[in-house]
Amino acid sequence: MVNLIFYGGVKEIGGNKILLEDGDARFFLDFGVSFSRRSRYFEEYLPPRSANGLGDFLATNLIPDIRGIYREDLLVHMGREPEDPEISAVILSHAHADHANYVSFLHKDIPIYCGETCKYILDAVNEQSKRNIENEVVDFKRRPIIPGKREEPIKRKFKLFRTGDNITIDSVDIEPIHVDHSVPGSYGFIIYTSKGPIVYTGDLRMHGTNPGLTRDFIERAKEERPIAIITEGTRINEKRGEESEEKVYVKAKEELKNARGLCVVDFNFKDVDRFRTFYRVSRELDKFLVISFKHACFLERYHLDGKLKVPDSKGEGILLLKPKMRTGTYADYDYISEPYIKSRLNYPNIITAEEISKNPEDYIVVLNYWYFNTLIDLKPEKGVYVHSLSEPFNEEMEISFERMMEWLKLFNLRYVHAHCSGHAYGEDILNMIKEIRPKKIFPIHTENPEGFKNLDGEIVIVKEGEKYTL
Ligand SMILES: [Zn+2]
User: Fold this and answer.
1) From residue 204, how far is each of 101, 179, 218, 241 by CA, in Å?
2) What is the Å distance from ligand 1's center to 13 Cα?
3) How far, in Å, CA of 252 to CA of 267, rounded?
4) Rounded distance from Cα 24 to ligand 1 centre (Å)
5) Does domain 2-238+423-469 fall into CATH 3.40.50.2300?
6) Quick check: do 2-238+423-469 and 245-417 share a fold?
7) Which of 37, 98, 266, 270 stands the most exposed, by the fewest C-beta atoms within 10 Å?
8) Per-residue pLDDT tens digits for 294-353
9) What is the SS3 assignment for 432?
10) Angle at Cα 253 formed by Cα 412 and Cα 358, nearest 5°?
C-alpha cells in the first residue's frame, strides 16, 4: 500500500511537505515554509517565539504534529520527550525556502537528499544569514543557547545527487531529473513505488533559459506511464504569454543604456540566469556590476560549479560594495561580527558608496529593497531602478512596494519592471500532464487546484493532512 499525505502546499503557493509511505519506507518530498500561512499569524514584530521551541509553529499549524521527525532539543525545549526518527529521508526539489527551510526543525539523524548545486546555495544562505530557528537547514545549534558557552553547530547529513544518479530509500528507488526553474539545481523526480511510478514535478517552467532540462524530465516521466503525478500549479489559470529571460535582457539593457545618473537593479541572487543577464548587460555597457558581500557568498559557490559558467566575486567587472562602517572615536573597535564580511575585507575589488557617487554612470549597483537605506550613502541625483522580481501579490508586499516607490522618488530614480517567472504557464502545465498521461493528478503549490480540468486522469483536489492511498 502506498500513501500520500500533504502537510503543506495545499491551496497555497509553496510550503510543500509531502509524506510518502510505501511499506516500511517513509520519507518527505520537500519540507518548506508556508509563507502565506505564516503571514496570516505573524509579522516582523510578532514572530514565532524561539523560546517556545516548536510550540508556536505547531499551534499555528505551520508544521504538522507528527511523531519521530523533529529535533530533540526543540521537543525538550517545549516540554516534550525526545523522539527517535521515524522517517528515512527528506528529498529536496530545490533550494527555495518554500521547499527547504523547515528542514531546520528536523531531527539531526534524518538524511537530506538534494542536488549538488542546491547544496551550494543552501551553504551560501547559511554563510551570510544570522542564525535563527527558522533558518538552520545546513546546521543548527542546540537550544537553549547558553550565553558565553561555545558550542559547535550540529551539521546535518546531506546526500547529494545529480541527474543520472539513483537514490534508494529503504525499498523505494527514486530517479532525480533536472528541470528548469528560477534557481539552478532544481529537480523533478520519478518515484518507483510498489504500486507503480509516481512523478513529482517540484517547481518548473518551459519558457526559461534551459527548456531542454524540463523537456528531459517530461520525456522520462512519460516513458514510465506513472500511476500518479504530484504537480505544481502556481500559474495554472494563466494562458501562455511572451515572457523570456532574453526579453528581460533586452529591456534591461535598453533602459540602463539610456539612463543618466546611477543604475540600480534588484533581482534574486539565487537566480543564476538573472545574474548572468545583468552581468552581460554590465559588460556590454562597459559598466561595473557592484554587488554586496552577501551576493559574493553566492557567486563564489556558483563559480565552483563550472557548469554554471559565472565569474567569481573577484571576476572582471565585478566590485563589492563596502558596508557602512563606523568612524571616529570607535574606529578601532571591532564591530564587524559577521564572518562573511570580515573574511572578504581584503579583496582587491572593494568600492565605497562615496567613490560610486563621484562617477555614478560607471556602475550598475545590485541593491535589494531591504538595503535601500544604502541609497543615502550612494546619493544618486537621478537614474533608473530596474525591478527584476515579481510584482507584489499580497497586502504586505503592496505596503513594501509603496515604501520602495517613496525611496525611488526621494532619489529621482525611474522605476522599470523587467522579469520572467520561474513557474510554467497553466497551458504548459496542462500540456505536460496530457503528454505524461498519469492515472491520477494531485495539484499542489497553487491557490487554484480547480484550474486543473479537461484532463484524462482523475484529478484529486487535495485536502491537507488527509491520507490518499494508491
Ligand atoms: Zn515553490
Assistant:
1) 19, 6, 11, 16
2) 6
3) 12
4) 28
5) no
6) no
7) 37
8) 999 999 999 998 889 999 999 999 999 998 876 555 544 445 668 899 899 999 999 999
9) helix
10) 45
